[in-house]
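Internal tracking record. Fields below are filled automatically when a chain is submitted to the structure queue. Please do not edit lines marked as system-generated. If the sequence contains nonstandard residues, flag them in the REMARKS field before resubmitting.
Queue: standard
Priority: normal
Entity type: single polypeptide chain
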Amino acid sequence: DALPNTCLINFYGNTPKGDGRPPVDLARLRMHRDGEPGPVVMLSVGQPAQFEFVEPGQPEPFLSQWIRHRSAVVLSGPLYKDRLYHRVTRVRYGDEPALSAHVDDFEVRRISVSFRHVPEDRILDLGQLAPEAQAIARPYVERLAEHSDHFRSQLATATAPE
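SYSTEM-GENERATED OUTPUT FOLLOWS
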C-alpha cells in the first residue's frame, strides 16, 4: 500500500449569525469515497460528528458511529476504503470543546486533519496548472504566501494574472 505523503485540513462549521441572513450549515459532508491509493488516516477535533458508512444504492447506513473530539479514523481495506461510501450527517452544537481557529465570516465547529497518499505525478507547481486553474487557485496561494516562502516562490514562477 502507498504510505501517506499529504496532509489535508478541512474546516467544518457554518456561516455566522448576525448578518441578516440565516446561517448556512457547512458542517456535514456528502456521501463520497476517497479515490487516492492506500489508507486515509483522519483526526477529528471539535464538535462530535456522526460518521456513516453507506453501501452503494442503500439508503440506510451500513455502520454509523459518533466520532468525538480527538478521535482517529482509519479508512483502509476493500470494504471501508474501496466499496463503502462515507459521509457526516450531523455535527453537534455546543460550547465545548472551544476551537481557537479563526476564519473570517465562518464559525468553526469541527476540524478534520487527514493524512493520505497523493501520487507524485499528481502534485503540480502552481505554474504547471492551466491558466484557468491558476486563476482559481491564485487568491488562496496569495494568502498562504503571506506566511510561507514556498508559496511566495510558487507565485513568482506562475503565470501573471491577466
